[in-house]
## 1
Amino acid sequence: MKFLSSLSRKLSSRLTPGMCFLSVIIFALFLFFILPEVSDRSYQVTKTSDSPDGSFFYTPEKLYHVAEQYGESGRSYYIKERFSFDVIWPLVYWFFLTTSITVIYRSLNTKWQLLNLLPSFGVLFDYLENLSTSAVMYFYPSKIPFIPWAASFFTSIKWSCIYASFILILVGLLWQIILISRKFVYKVKNR
């Protein structure tokens, strides 16, 4: 726990509002320009919009069905993308989520400080998901007993961490608006 607290404090001391602004710009560029292009290219190669990355939960049967749909070239493309684009994209959303949570919650009680680590767990499980789904794609049509279930578990945890991080940002922003409004009302009343 000391390691996590220390890591959280380091992030808190180094991540500034300026870095938060930069993270928003980078995240928006990826969201509006790069992700649609990658998605289109993936569709052209695999001929389907099915992907284990986009589901919150899937069964091993569904994962094997996607592997079959992709065909050999689609599976090869999928693996290549997991170790190129999908190494960078988690770092982009990590930077945005971590910086935003850190900056928003910095002024609040220090017990909330550890919240800035939640996106890191999302990235960790994203990488574990990439490894396990790539293993399924690589060894297909052979079936490995526990890897597809692990992949589904990693995907669910990844999405839970990411969704919770976005919720934390929204709640933190609302909380900051309420605090600023109270200060403003207090100043107006005491004039």
## 2
Amino acid sequence: MDKKFISYLLRKVGKALGDYNMLSEGDKVLIGVSGGKDSLTLLDTMVLKKRFLPFSYDIFVVNVDFGFYKDESYFERLEEFFKKLSVNYYFIKGELSNSKKEINCFWCSWNRRKEIFLLAKKLNCNKVALGHTLDDVVITFLMNLFYHGEISTMPPILKMFSGEITLIRPLVYVTSQETKKYAEYKNLPVIDFECPYYNKKFRQREYLKNLLEELEKFWPNIKKNIFNSLKKVKQEYLV
């Protein structure tokens, strides 16, 4: 059963890679790994997919730490995991408290991405992969719809810096529940950490996450249907 699930999840990743043409021969891909179940699942599956795809690509890994991890020994376990996968890895440590900006989820994410893209340019990586799942795409869509009055979300693939780097999200067909199951079965070194800058926007995202979980009890396919609706926009029926 578990092996069938692993194959099932790998097929989902492969379909996303193919549907959106995320990878090509000779790509150098930098994967951002926070230590959560999603990013670790992304890394593990991207390494496994190299065995089956008809072309080669190089994988680099980066962990950006702003001092949120309480257990310093975690980095040793993470490093062991990277070595086991035989990937080139980098650890970046920084502080958000030195910034004059208000420290919140957006500012933290912006700085984290900044460090990742700077490293990608330094390593001449043409792709950056992040572990956003189908849940993240759906929740971001609802966030923008409810709180910003616009229809938009995280795209599976996005060209940045005039095409110099392409951001890819290979887990867009995978749910958060599936990455949890995958991480548990593969015994990935997942770490839970509490954000010290928990704020209103984070609570809004948590509210929508809980709302979707409640709605799933009545409509099990609701997240998948919302995701698919973003690919079936009938513009002639919009205002």
## 3
Amino acid sequence: MSQSVSRLKKELDLGYVAPPLTPAGSRPTLDLVHLARQSLGDKDREIEILALFDQQSGQALARLEALSGRDGAVAADLARMLAASARIAGAFAVASAATVYEAVVLSSGEGDAGAEALSHLKAEVCQVREAIGALLAR
């Protein structure tokens, strides 16, 4: 993995900000410039933040799916924490989807709207986790 880490550090030093899975004309899956600011330019910290977000977002998503329809307050709290972590990592689409899911759960409970919001959140988390995996594999 040290070779992967050194390659990622080099790309981050060069300002590489085009992560995979970025549709043309939209904001990037991961905002690596924001991540660099959050970590004060420490490349090891950037890698650590991405790895932690990858792990924690997967766990949070699994818990949200398990809670589906049972405990809206807990699901809303978990979505709020996921949104905060996503903002730190530069995964703003995940943060937005988590905020929407939280609002839906708090306003109308689960139901069809909650299931749709959770499905959208899952898609955003999966896309970011794929991008993180691709970056960390380099």
## 4
Amino acid sequence: MTEPPRPSAEELPRVIEALLLAADEPVGAGALSRAAGTGERSVRAALERLARESAARGLRLQEDGGRYQLVTAPEYAPYVARLLGDEASRRLSRAALETLAVVAYRQPCTRGDVEAVRGVNSDRVVALLEQRGLIEQAGRARSPGRPRLFRPATRFYEHFGLLGPADLPPLPEEGDPDRAEL
């Protein structure tokens, strides 16, 4: 198989888009650079352009921890849920939402950290969220027993229509009567 030609700066965003659509999981800029046969600086510029251009379509470029993927735009979620059926549209319980909020804002955190905030045992809800791919292990704490640390998974950001951790809404200010205790 012959090497494909090096894409032009104009063509590179389309090459990156094709690579991201073909990938099974989020891809780092280095891997995209190698696959496209161009430098990482060019790939990053192409990713920025792709993000701007896709904002006017049904796709969004999502970045999490330096890895990128294309996801559907959150405003079209009801249509995607209709196509995919019940699995995509299952609602999260209040306990699951509380747990996700703690993990998202305190990441990385242990199950014990979640329980300290929620005030109840969170074994089942943490296991369920991990099983559904909304949270993932982010290592182990350096405390006795070396408990697992959790962080939001890429699917968490997809589920809530966020492009990454920077898109999390700010926590309410102290003194706000609606302030959540995180």
